[in-house]
Amino acid sequence: MDLKHLLLSEHSRELSGHIMEMAIVDPKLVGELIDFMNSNNVLLAQRAGWPIGLLGTSHHHLFAPYISKLINCLKDPVHPAVSRNAYRVLQFMSVPEEYEGILFDLCSRDLSNPKNPVAIKVFCMTVAFNICKRHPGLKPELKLLIEAGLEHSSAGYRSRSIKLLKHL
After folding, report:
1. I need a surface site. Which of 66, 86, 106, 150 has the fewest CB within 10 A?
2. For residue 143, which of 124, 117, 168, 107 has the smallest C-alpha distance?
3. Nearest to 152 by CA among 120, 104, 123, 112
């Protein structure tokens, strides 16, 4: 069964875990999953995001050859799962300097968008914070973005922001 058909067959934790295991054994599947996540097919993009998110938390090294593709997914995502899982992976990675500018801009855009789900914002904070470690001049901008979202924030947003604001 091909990966696309597998993703479209069902949406479950079990299947996502199975696909994650397949990608660990055959890392070229990571590129395929990212391509699916970047497709215009909303259902396929959403379903590809879950195994990507699972892989990214424990096997983020598999994404090193695909950083530009992963960042490209953030430019015009067709479903919130795309952004959520791309940022989830990127928060654990060391992003090459050539991508830091565009990634920080995307994080700023998504962090300041009041329509974005909390998980996207929380992962954005961490990705942007990691970039600020190498570019301290961006810290005031990130601090303003985080503080702007505090007034009407959830517990998850407040928790992450408090942790990060201590270091900004």
Report:
1. 150
2. 168
3. 112
